Amino acid sequence: MNRAGLRALVLVALAATLWSFVGFGLTADGLAQVEAIASGDLILTEAAGLALIDYYAANKTADELAELLAAALTPGQEIAAQGAIDKQTGAVEALLAEYQANEDAEAALAALLDKAMNGATASEREAAARVYYLVMGMPNNREALEAEVAKTDISDEMAYVAGQLLGANYIIFAPTKTADELKALAVEGATYGLRVAGGTGYAQSIAGTHEYTIRDLETLILEHTLWHEELADAYRILVSILYKKL
């Protein structure tokens, strides 16, 4: 899977985490505005696609979403459709139930790891990685997560899931990292997983307190795209939250 597709999964996963703390949704006018951005703006398309996921999941059928995904012409349209499909199907929950139902815990864990490394699709590998790290107790284990993001022999999906978990760990468990430290890590991290940790942790740490406007965040995305992608992704997440208020 290419890194652009991988980034899309990171964005969707973090957006889902942050949206659990907000209770607003798109208005009719807002929906039209955000769909226009998703279909026509090459830099902001992904952020707009994120803002559409919940609406599409709640208001479109599985067949409609499949048609939208097949017809998608921009990354934002693809994110919106695939994110809504994943939300409706509950892939992570299904894999966790499958693991728990297997009486051979060792074999079940090996199967999860194999799927996280070699699953047929990026979404399948990402879901398996989430369940694998969960049952391994990784979210609370900073040392293990830092070791994981330093590995070079795991799938890209495993690297970014570990990075996202590490970013959350950095802002929840002592010693915590400051927003400035996380922002710097998003730019200067030695590995992709570390930069994901910095970017996702930064977005979560300032989501409820920043004073950025939509225009501010759009400008920051433009400034950092291609140069500091993990930091640009943090700003995409934050602007997607504001898009959902339109």
Write the layout of secondary structure elements.
Elements: H1 3-19, H2 28-40, H3 45-59, H4 62-71, H5 75-89, H6 91-101, H7 105-118, H8 122-135, H9 142-149, H10 156-172, H11 179-188, H12 192-206, H13 214-224, H14 229-243
Description:
The protein is mostly helical. It has 3 domains: 1-89 and 208-246, no CATH class; 90-136, no CATH class; 140-206, no CATH class. 75% of the residues lie in helices and 0% in strands. The chain has 14 helices and no strands. It has helices spanning 3-19, 28-40, 45-59, 62-71, 75-89, 91-101, 105-118, 122-135, 142-149, 156-172, 179-188, 192-206, 214-224, 229-243. Helix 3 (45-59) packs across helix 14 (229-243), helix 7 (105-118) runs antiparallel to helix 8 and helix 8 (122-135) crosses helix 10 (156-172). The protein is globular, with a radius of gyration of 17 Å.
Features:
globular; 14 helices; 246 residues; 3 domains; mainly alpha
Helix fraction bin: over 70%
Please describe the biggest sheet, giving its number of strands, its sense, and whether it closes into a barrel.
none
CA distance, first residue to last residue: 33 Å
The SSE string, one letter per element, is HHHHHHHHHHHHHH
Shape: globular
The count of helical stretches stands at: 14
What's the total count of β strands? 0
Uncertain regions spanning at least 5 consecutive residues: none
Mean pLDDT: 90
- In what range is the share of β-strand residues? under 5%
Class by helix and strand content?
mainly alpha
Total of domains: 3
Rg calculated over all Cα atoms: 17 Å
